[in-house]
């Protein structure tokens, strides 16, 4: 190896990490990529929502509505998680809502007063947002 090909590291500096391939324009692919699982979940969720609205007065109406909301939310959550944790696009605020809702629901069913419920939800959202934003920054470099 000639002198021109050798790289000298400056004293006191760290070597730069190897460059990542720049594929930020491409969405991360799902493990089940050729199969449109997320799209089918979203479609089924929409169908269940429509059926729930049509049958709202019957006993199965609310069950269909809740099932449709759950499937639609799962379809969106899958995409948000993949994009966020691959460094493609930050979804810190959306994902921080999950622990906030969980904290609020736990305190609501425990019978906590409303101010405590709101404070816990805000604290959970803020903490989750900070942690998720840091996780995104680590992946996006």
The profile of the biggest β sheet is: none
Strand content: under 5%
* Amino- and carboxy-terminal Cα gap: 31 Å
Give the total of domains.
2
**Mean residue pLDDT:** 84
Query: Measured on Cα atoms, how large is the radius of gyration?
Result: 23 Å
User: Roughly how much helix do the residues carry, as a percent range?
Assistant: 55-70%
Q: What is the approximate shape?
A: flat
Number of strands: 0
Which class best fits the helix and strand makeup?
A: mainly alpha
Total helical segments: 4
Helix and strand run? HHHH
Low-confidence stretches: none
Structural notes for this entry:
This protein has helices spanning 37-54, 61-85, 92-110, 114-140. It contains four helices and no strands. The protein has two domains: 34-85; 88-141. Helix 1 (37-54) runs antiparallel to helix 2 (61-85) and helix 3 (92-110) packs antiparallel against helix 4 (114-140). The mean pLDDT is 84. The relative contact order is 0.10.
Key attributes of the depicted protein:
141 residues; mainly alpha; 4 helices; 63% helix
